[in-house]
Amino acid sequence: MDNISIVGIHVHIRSQVLDYDKLYKYYENVFGLAIFCKETMKWELEFINFGGGLGIVYSLLNDNPLNLDALSYECNSLISKFKEYLNVRLIIETGRFLVCESGQYVTHIVDIKESRGKKYLIVENGLNGFLRPSIVSLVDTYAHDDLNPKSYEPFFTTRDAFDFSIVGKDSSNIENVDLVGNLCAATDVMAKDIMLPKASVGDIVVVSRAGSYAYSLTPLLFTSHPLPLQFYLDSNGKILN
Ligand SMILES: Cc1ncc(COP(=O)(O)O)c(C=O)c1O
């Protein structure tokens, strides 16, 4: 390919890796690939992009946080081994790791109903506003087991992956509810059997860990409901344009 000049390589292991040693070995292999590109293929690389993959804790019960100190320690020795010889820019895409926990999904209760002894808090834009919590019921349906369900890239989620709260309500008067959307689809369930403060129509519901794989992964246009808005706040809580 005479008209193509290769200036870098880009590899991605997978998303949501919590074992620092896996990331370290992966980085080591990518450096090996870069050496092959330089020595065997004679390519003049300007950069190596290692992709993303740094995971966050979704499930307090099942996930152990990524040991960043250990990863950084191991990576420093890798970098000093290869950096001078390769003389390239090294890029890691921090994806979900940086932004997931800084975003929240906010919606409000449009109706409350009781059916067969169960209380349902019905919000505007459930599955079609923030899909990820509803994936749990989907995985449960397809997995048919009682284990904490795991889904795969880019849907990683667990039953306890999201915290739900109601603005301005304290936890002195809580009750068991299902938090659902209002689509004509049985999968429009954000959380089943959770304990929430007694709520009223109009109350605002906040869902955690919505800073990544949220707006971009949700079927926002499904049933033509109004789209959620995205706001970026600075460290003082001021909305940025
Ligand atoms: C090429 C590439 N880079 C980066 C990412 C981001 O991964 P994460 O947000 O899990 O770090 C992905 C996710 O699929 C990817 O495919």
Descriptive notes:
- It is a single chain.
- The chain is an alpha/beta fold and 241 residues long.
- The protein is 23% helix and 22% strand.
- The protein contains 4 helices and 11 strands; from the N terminus they run βαβαβαββαββββββ.
- The protein has a 6-stranded mixed beta sheet.
- The longest helix is centred in the N-terminal third of the chain and has 20 residues, at 20-39.
- The termini are far apart.
- The model has no long low-confidence stretch (mean pLDDT 92).
How is the topology of this model organized?
Blueprint: E1 8-10, H1 20-39, E2 47-49, H2 68-86, E3 89-91, H3 95-99, E4 105-115, E5 118-123, H4 132-143, E6 164-166, E7 174-180, E8 189-197, E9 204-207, E10 232-233, E11 239-240
Parallel strand pairs: 1-2, 2-3, 5-7
Antiparallel strand pairs: 4-5, 4-9, 6-9, 7-8, 10-11
